[in-house]
From TrEMBL:
It holds the Pfam family TetR_C_41. PROSITE patterns: HTH_TETR_2. Transmembrane segments: none annotated. InterPro entries: Homeodomain-like_sf, HTH_TetR, Rv0078-like_C, Tet_transcr_reg_TetR-rel_C_sf. The keyword DNA-binding applies. This is HTH-type transcriptional regulator BetI. Keywords: DNA-binding, Transcription, Transcription regulation. PANTHER family: HTH-TYPE TRANSCRIPTIONAL REGULATOR YJDC, TRANSCRIPTIONAL REGULATORY PROTEIN. Residues 3-63 form the HTH tetR-type domain. Residues 26-45 bind DNA. Gene3D superfamilies: Tetracycline Repressor, domain 2.
Amino acid sequence: MMEETRARLVRAARDAFATKGYAAASMDDLTAAAGLTRGALYHNFGDKPGLLQAVIDQIDAEMAARLRAVGERADTAWQGLLDEYAAYIEMALEPEIQRILLRDGPAVLGDPARWPSQNACLEEVTRRIRALVADGAVRPVDPEAAARLLNGASLSAALWIAAADDPPAVLARAVAAFRRLAGGLLESRSGDRDAPASADP
């Protein structure tokens, strides 16, 4: 019963936040849409920001699953990581992600780099870079430092796109620059295959 109540509130909030925006979505409208009371919202999420966090967690989990699928299609571990970052940046064009995660989320919940989901992402990327360094695919580098810089650059690119007057035009520039910057981690013996790709959006 509790899980169903939470799910109904998250569904209603996700729809309202995506269509109206966080500020314009009243708690009374949210609870009415879910067929519940304010008390249910307070009991399950504490307050409206808590409900926003739950919506973001749900969307973030869906994004992570999509990104894993992108990475699994790549020929190499490095290319998979790079493709996942590019796909993440491209998701900034999607209205729901753009509005909830990249606009309202930071305004209400603060720096996205400090969100719990980002910590899990940082740990995973650090692990993957450590493996790439051990395999000789990536130059010797501190794995955590590299992961933090790559995560920060991709997040900054996504936020830039979300705030731009012409998001598609900014996307092409952001992805091309990100690939070029990330390509600096590659060992030269990785071959010429990755070098041209790093310049393409």
